Amino acid sequence: MKFTLQQKNHIRHIRNERLETIKKDYRGNKTIDGRFANGDTLYNPPFSKVLSWQLSRNPQREEKKQDDFVPPIFEGSEFIESDKDMVVWLGHCSFFIRLGGVTFLTDPVLFDVPLLPRRVGLPCPPEQLRNISFLLLSHGHRDHLDKKSIRAVFESNPQLKALIPLRAGDILRAVNPHLPYQEAGWYQKFDLLPEGVEVYFMPASHWHRRGLLDMNKVLWGSFVIKTPTLSLYFAGDSAMGPHFEEIEDLLGPMDVCLMPVGAYKPAFLMAKSHMNPHESVKAFNLLRGGTFVPMHYGTFDLSDEPPGEPVRLLRQIAAGGMLPGLRIPAIGEPVLLQDLY
Per the database record, which ranges form the Metallo-beta-lactamase domain (predicted)? Predict the structure, then answer.
């Protein structure tokens, strides 16, 4: 794959030269000493803050201990055989999506992650997830890019193609060298889709790390899926930032937004990586969103807030009239897109 490289000292701008870039005069994603930046700025989560978090007492410790919330499960695999356009949450940031007759699976994490057991199951065994055309991977963190899950999905879906961030290909080659993929940078349009369905890789404010020496060596981002009648936004992981308004400026209002709402405490550690529910609603409004579907909560224990707090806050916001499009589906419960409009 050929990339456009423009170097000044240790700064380069990288994109997939084969793909269309929809932002005028955008040279590509900025790297500094080989590491991707959020816009113009490198973000390296300081180890001192992680250590401070581990050594400090969670002020909500007792509340969290007593909070037994887990997302409900709508069991069954009928949604897989349906021909209706829909969104089905599979836990954390994993969604089965059918849009314009094309099926997608986002950030599949279908099993326990090392040191992070799933707190809730799946609606059906992973091997029943079939008829999937495209795998969308937002970034390389292990709670989003799980090799075991991708391997299982590819075994059941030999027709699968992966749409991924720049430099994530090496990770997929280690999963299965026969899994086809296409890398994109921010503001780029993938060209593997059938006519009538478009997929764009768009910005997020986040970071990458899987090992000791790969900090920010792989890009991160979000996805927009568009048909002539509907636009769907999958946020991946992101902190609050100006990119939400810019996405709406470039691609228009987002009819359905899959938005992260968990892993936001303590704020001193999480605020530059994730959004709390209030921030996520603000981002949704900047996207001029229609329907808000939450994710990134309840499935894994990643942070200090009680597991049920994100849902309680979202319902409070909706009760105040600030989130009329809120939908909180059970895991495995189809959200039929034709019923939303």
Answer: 104-297
Residue 9 is predicted with a pLDDT of 52
Q: What is the pLDDT of residue 303?
A: 96
Question: What is 3-339's CATH superfamily?
Answer: Ribonuclease Z/Hydroxyacylglutathione hydrolase-like (3.60.15.10)
Among the listed residues 257, 191, 182, 195, the one whose alpha carbon sits nearest the alpha carbon of residue 227:
195
Mean pLDDT of the chain, nearest integer: 95
Q: Which of 152, 192, 141 is nearest to 176 (CA)?
A: 152
Q: CA 83, CA 81: separation in Å to the nearest integer?
A: 7
Q: Give the integer Cα–Cα distance in Å for 297 and 308.
A: 8
**Which residue shows structure tokens 């040279």?**
27
**pLDDT at 296 > cutoff 50:** yes
pLDDT at 333 over 70: yes
CA dihedral 313, 317, 319, 324 (to 10 degrees): -120
Provide the whole-model pTM: 0.95
**Minimal CA–CA distance to 203: which of 251, 134, 145, 142?**
251
Q: 21 and 184 in contact (C-beta within 8 Å)?
A: no
